[in-house]
Amino acid sequence: MKKLALHWQILIGMTLGVLFALILTNFSWGSDFIGDWIKPFGTIFISSLKLIAIPLILAALIKGISDLKDISSLSQMGFRTIITYVITTVIAVSIGLGVVSIVKPGGTINEETRNELVEAYGGDAESKRIDASKQKEAGPLQALIDLVPENIFSASASNRNMLQVIFFAVFFGIGLILIPEEKGKPVKDFFDGVNEVILKMVDLIMLAAPYGVFALLAALVVEAPSPDLFAALGMYAISVVLGLLLMVGVYLLLVWIFTKRTPSFFLKGIAPAQLLAFSTSSSAATLPVTMERVTEHLGVDEKVSSFVLPIGATINMDGTSLYQAVAAVFIAQAFGMDLSFGTQLGIIATATLASIGSAAVPGAGMVMLVGVLGYAGIPEAGLALIFAVDRPLDMCRTVINVTGDASVSMLVAKSQGKLGEPHVKDWDDNYKK
Ligand code: ASP
Fold first, then answer.
1. β-bridge mates for residue 300, sequence order
2. Cα-to-centroid distance, 387 and ligand 1 (Å)
3. What is the percent of the chain with per-residue pLDDT over 90, rounded to a whole number?
4. How far is the CA of 390 from the centre of ligand 1 (A)?
5. Ligand 1 pocket: which residues have CB below 6 Å?
6. N or C: which terminal CB in the chain sees fewer CB atoms within 10 Å?
7. Is residue 117 scored above 90 in pLDDT?
8. 432: pLDDT confidence band, cut at 50, 70 and 90?
């Protein structure tokens, strides 16, 4: 029997998960049953992905960088990567601002709904504000200080320290380039082997993906807020989703223009990572799959993907920055504030920086939104307005974050002459050219 492509299997798992939860919520024991017996499998699935993120970054980056042979190609690639990331983020924020000023979702919120939302979610909003204020207390160069770990083992002990692990791996890779080849070879071969093993582990975990997403989505449905709230915030949610969809168009266009790869080729290759981003709301958890798809299914050379993608997962969040722009202006509109052109330009800058600073985990974008609101003088209590629909929007913006990383890796690969043909390995879904 012909095997169904992986993205279809995952989509079926997601749909069945939602249906299953919708049916079970009709029974008094349904939610508890899902919480006790289904959700844990989703958690195990995410954990198994997170489990391999740090070893994968270490092995892939060390191997990738030492393959470069010289430091100048590393700095050239690094420069191109960062510039392209910043450009796509600025495009994303601008699209967000454009959409929110045309749709004006804040106008649909009447005072009564506003008060209800502030009352219902004020506490949750407060806790995000406290998280944000912890980050704000730091000095201007704190991000730079945080980049350099004082101990690689303690840095590797938390997925939140990915940038530190990246720093170590790049540093180690540079050292490896600079030592005599015969000394470096065994070290390189070792990381090469580790890298292969981990990519195979990704394939194995992905065999469970349809079941994992079933559990994740079933658990999300029973924990979802009431549909009335969705209706009240409908226009806001539509604005975010519309902006995100436009951003997908931008990526497809960029990839098509610069690499001549068609939208269907790109989407088919990256779809499983996108679906996983949607189900897990975490670009960090999705990273191993993004790496595997981009390298094996989109033809990006490992030297490029192993560098561009881990960095992208931590600093390039176009979906998050777009959402922050829409959310900030929506809250301002709901409070009857008019934002000047200068303030909007400032939102572009702060949302770009905030998305760079956001951790690649669920809900991180909302914490950083506090900074954007603070800058623009928008009441931070307004976070309560958007809380109810944050999770579904988090799922959508994470898809864009991952898609952005994948597109940029193709652009950088093309510019370095390192974009080739896909080379799918066994155990993978049945890719056909
Ligand atoms: N969940 C997002 C991610 O992991 C970050 C955010 O926007 O909250 O990419």
1. 419
2. 15
3. 55
4. 11
5. 281-283, 317, 320, 358, 360-365, 394, 397-398, 401
6. N
7. no
8. very low
